[in-house]
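[step 3/7] fold_predict: job queued, chain A
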Amino acid sequence: MALLIPTRTDERTRTKFVGVGAGVGLVAIVLIVLAAAGVFSSSSALGNVGLVTNVAAPQSPNAQMDPFGAPSATADYTVPPPPGQPTLVPTIGTKTTQRLYGADPFQEAVSVTQHVWPAALPLNAPNENNNDPDRPWALTLLTPDEPLPAITAVPLLHFPNDAPILYVTRNGIPKVTEDEIKRLGDTGISRYHNVDAFLVGAAANSGVEKQLKAMGLKYATVTAPNVPALANTVDKLYGSIQNPDTGVPNMGNGMQNVMIGSMQSYQYLLPATHWVAHMASGLLWVNQNSIPAPTIEALKRRKGQARIYLFGGPQQISGAVANELAQYGAVVRITNNDNVAFNANPTDTAVDTAIAFAKMWDGAGEVGWKITGPGHGFTLVNENDWQAAVASAPLSHLGFHAPLLFTNSSGTIPPELESYYKSVAPTYTTTPADGPYNMTYVIGSWNQVTWPLQAHVDYISEMGNRRLWNTTTGGGYTDSSPTP
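[step 4/7] structure written:
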């Protein structure tokens, strides 16, 4: 709409009109009228703007980090835990990251369970036995001194057990873990003798058992003479609970998926812990050049129907082993290799394997996170902190369902992970309020993953403007592919 303002006489109508933008013209007329009426004067009725630029910078030991002087060395206030839950520990978050802090494996595991299960409802709340977001149904107790048994136990976490991981010692339960067991107040597994805890490997010791009995928990011990036999025992136990018809774990589509790693390269199998926490699957072990008898026994239970996923390349699991495994089912290797992209085979690393698994999708087995676009969660762990990788598996069980990623340095992320984060960063074309958004859980102490590294992940995960000509990475909801 335009506002017509008379300016001079013309011969027909004695008036000529000039079009002025409605908003500007109206304001101009109002100001003219008000000024004529004496509403405004030369006084300060409109206010004043004062500009001060002659300020000397403070002397700071680190002017780049603290341009206005260093802040206090202590926090100005603390966050009290929620009423009635004095053992809850506040953690540090940013726009797109959440630190689950732990100075040791016991604390790391507790930070995870405190984040996932509020345990705010009474044990007799309606449907408590059939709803998991508030209290777990059981616990999986492990010791933090042996990686292979701990990794082996993770399938017990998934439904219908809903049994997150907490760490104990070979002599008993430390106070931080005991307090968390009491806070969680699990419901017991109705499908398995109302058991409250699985004691796996060295966690099945008299000290732990004595303390559990004193707290009134029912438990089952899960032991074996060696790691492959322990994996077979866990597989049979979990299969008997999850799928009592055949005793073999399977997904809703009937697929009998098995994740397999090399005992000599266990870091490569760590990403599988987050998958078996998310989907009913087996988890077994081989050597680089041989297959233990308990692993063959577990595969034979699948009667040729197994879909077998090998984590790592031939340097971790040889081609001969892969070929031998093929007689028990279809074999899929999870690696960063690509026959089109690489002439010579690339080096496989645990970092690359985790990224490859986060991106892959195998439609036949319905395995893989297929995260090639934004709108997802991730778990970031130092690859040397296997205890955090195992303990954080519940983050793929409930909530954001966050697959595992590795940094190989406490202070920087490797370039391939930097590229992956940028490729899945969210961007918008209309408004950032539409999303999607990413979230990364950073597990461990400031020594495992530093604060600057966490801040950097937050920076490269923030929403970007796709309309900018120089925005060449990131995407929207439709960019995770292929579709199922």
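[step 5/7] annotate
Residues 97-115+134-479 form one domain.
Residues 1-42 have pLDDT under 50 and may be disordered.
exit 0
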